[in-house]
Design goal:
Protein name: Triokinase/FMN cyclase
Distance between the termini: 63 Å
Number of strands: 12
Strand content: 5-15%
Catalytic activity: dihydroxyacetone + ATP = dihydroxyacetone phosphate + ADP + H(+); FAD = riboflavin cyclic-4',5'-phosphate + AMP + H(+); D-glyceraldehyde + ATP = D-glyceraldehyde 3-phosphate + ADP + H(+)
GO biological process, one term: glycerol catabolic process
CATH topology of the largest domain: Rossmann fold
Subunit structure: Homodimer. Interacts with IFIH1 (via the CARD domains), the interaction is inhibited by viral infection.
Strand order of the largest sheet: 1-2-4-3-5-6
CATH architecture of the largest domain: 3-Layer(aba) Sandwich
Organism: Gorilla gorilla gorilla (Western lowland gorilla)
Radius of gyration: 32 Å
Number of domains: 2
Largest sheet: 6 strands, mixed
Length: about 575
């Protein structure tokens, strides 16, 4: 079965993609009759060297995203994963020559089709008297033994675009740019890894991986890599990649060693989430610095993709100060990141958090009977929530994400860890304040924020008194805060329904002579009934409000959890 793609047609997808980029970027123009994009200010390049690159489509933002002042003059695009036509390459060379440039450098990735087509176009242009040079970039560090075809051209090519572009912008001649670029290319290596393949529009995935495998050393055209490895953590995979890239027995290794200074490039191959990309970037920085390597600059993003392939490539380029100046030089290319001209290694990455405000001392001795009772209540609440984890997750799956139980279990584990540090405060106000901070930091999700809001607001009435009327007022304050910021109301099928029902019963605590357990028992029963009733409600707030009410046949998991918490509190107080 072919993959789904948002295209107008398989045959026209490369043209449409390039047209879309040009349509949205006034600094670019299409060359009529060709799949070629050029700088719209070609006339400003008179007397300078032009830089042309390209290759198959499907590697976006490469290569057209790197057209601009300080980078490429133009790009020739082929069909998806297909070398561009010789005629289009020649037309691009002629176009920049007619604009008054003093020569053209072709920057070509090391693939047979690209070498042949760009090479043939170069020979034809030279026959017409146009000065043209060509550099072939091979930065692949996958192969331990070099084959006749040489190293494949990968994401490191983008760094060559940047270096050559800075030199051309500075007015350096064609011969000198060619010489410097060839030297830089020798000090660079790239290695890719992917969780699965990609699929060319109109085709099936190019290779298959089992659920516990990843592909190491693959190219950018969906071709398989040098070997398959078992799925592992991000740290382990990054270590394996860097070990492979820098191993001196590897014929295509990068000569990086302790004390080396590098530009690090973490490239999304197209389908990896930004979350995973950040994790890989962090792992790479830690691993390199742990080896004594200085990271002079770090580029993280999508630079050269392989359609929707969920994977990454790591590029290391050995640099000195003159080369860094070329990397840092200004460019208007849309896809080049705004990288600060500051070393990554040695930079302070955190600052001290503000000190917590001083709390009034707890007038009740820690570890006293009140404190022990608080600990018993909290332990019962934690065990209850941990026991409900799978049930709450199952209820929550009806609304999409199925993590309500996990979120509440995370809160329970955080409270248990906190209790290990010592007895909880006996003061109700201080206890609720501590719990609110803990849940806001550790619980996560909207539930953590709502419980944090509830407890923070409930703390205020209990600072002066801890009588039953004060506890009722605390419930009122918590409910008011939840409604104010959460925008839910009773009947909206949320955790508020349980808490609201309990809060109405707890109004009886404000009456003289009210019985604590009798009123609390009624409140718990009302909360449980309200939780059960949510299965017949139409969701008016929260993620469930986006789901058709016909699909919500179970009670709201948040309401069930809130009722269970109240039941746990009651059971401890009764015993």
């Amino acid at each position: 079965m072919t993959s789904k793609k948002l295209v107008n047609s398989v045959a026209g997808c490369a043209d449409d993609a390039l047209a879309g980029l040009v349509a949205c970027n006034p600094n670019l123009q299409l060359l009529q009759g060709h799949r070629v994009a050029l700088r719209s200010d070609l006339d400003s390049l008179k007397g300078r060297v032009a830089l042309l690159s390209g290759g198959g489509s499907g590697h976006e933002p490469a290569h057209a995203g790197f057209i601009g002042k300080g980078m490429l003059t133009g790009v020739i695009a082929g069909a998806v994963f297909t070398s561009p036509a010789v005629g289009s390459i020649l037309a691009a060379i002629r176009a920049v020559a007619q604009a008054g440039t003093v020569g053209t450098l072709l920057i070509v990735k090391n693939y047979t089709g690209d070498r042949l087509n760009f090479g043939l176009a170069r020979e034809q242009a030279r026959a017409e008297g146009i000065p043209v040079e060509m550099v072939v970039i091979g930065d692949d560090s996958a192969f331990t033994v070099l084959k006749k075809a040489g190293r494949r051209g990968l994401c490191g090519t983008v760094l060559i675009h940047k270096v050559a572009g800075a030199l051309a912008e500075a007015g350096v001649g064609l011969e000198e740019i060619t010489k410097q670029v060839n030297m830089v290319a020798k000090a660079m290596g790239t290695l890719g890894v992917s969780l699965s393949s990609c699929s060319v529009p109109g085709s099936k995935p190019t290779f298959e991986l089992s659920a516990d495998e990843v592909e190491l050393g693959l190219g950018i055209h969906g071709e398989a890599g040098v070997r398959r490895i078992k799925m592992a953590t991000a740290d382990e995979i990054v270590k394996l990649m860097l070990d492979h890239m820098t191993n001196t027995t590897n014929a295509s290794h990068v000569p990086v060693q302790p004390g080396s200074s590098v530009v690090m490039m973490v490239n999304n191959l197209g389908g990896l989430s930004f979350l995973e990309l950040g994790i890989i970037a962090d792992a790479t920085v830690r691993s390199l610095e742990g080896r004594g390597v200085k990271i002079a600059r770090a580029l993280v993003g999508t630079f050269m993709s392989a359609l929707e392939m969920p994977g990454i490539s790591l590029t290391l380029l050995l640099v000195d100060e003159p080369l860094l100046k070329l990397i840092d030089a200004e460019t208007t290319a849309a896809a080049w990141p705004n990288v600060a001209a500051v070393s990554i290694t040695g930079r302070k990455r955190s600052r001290v958090a503000p000190a917590e405000p001083q709390e009034a001392p707890d007038s009740t001795a820690a570890g006293g009977s009140a404190s022990k009772r608080m600990a018993l209540v909290l332990e019962r609440v934690c065990s209850t929530l941990l026991g409900l984890e799978e049930h709450l997750n199952a209820l929550d799956r009806a609304a999409g994400d199925g993590d309500c139980g996990t979120t509440h279990s995370r809160a329970a584990r955080a409270i248990r860890e906190w209790l290990k540090e010592g007895p909880p405060p006996a003061s109700p106000a201080q206890l609720l304040s501590k719990l609110s901070v803990l849940l806001l930091e550790k619980m996560g999700g909207s539930s953590g924020a709502l419980y944090g809001l509830f407890l923070t607001a409930a703390t205020q009435p209990l600072k002066a008194k801890t009588s039953l009327p004060a506890w009722s007022a605390a419930m009122d304050a918590g409910l008011e805060a939840m409604q104010k910021y959460g925008k839910a109301a009773p009947g909206d099928r949320t955790m508020l329904d349980s808490l609201w029902a309990a809060g109405q019963e707890l109004q009886a605590w404000k009456s003289p002579g009210a019985d604590l357990l009798q009123v609390l028992t009624k409140a718990v029963k009302s909360a449980e009934a309200a939780a059960e009733a949510t299965k017949d409600m139409e969701a008016g707030a929260g993620r469930a409000s986006y789901i058709s009410s016909a699909r919500l046949e179970q009670p709201d998991p948040g309401a069930v959890a809130a009722a269970a918490i109240l039941r746990a509190i009651l059971e401890v107080l009764q015993s």
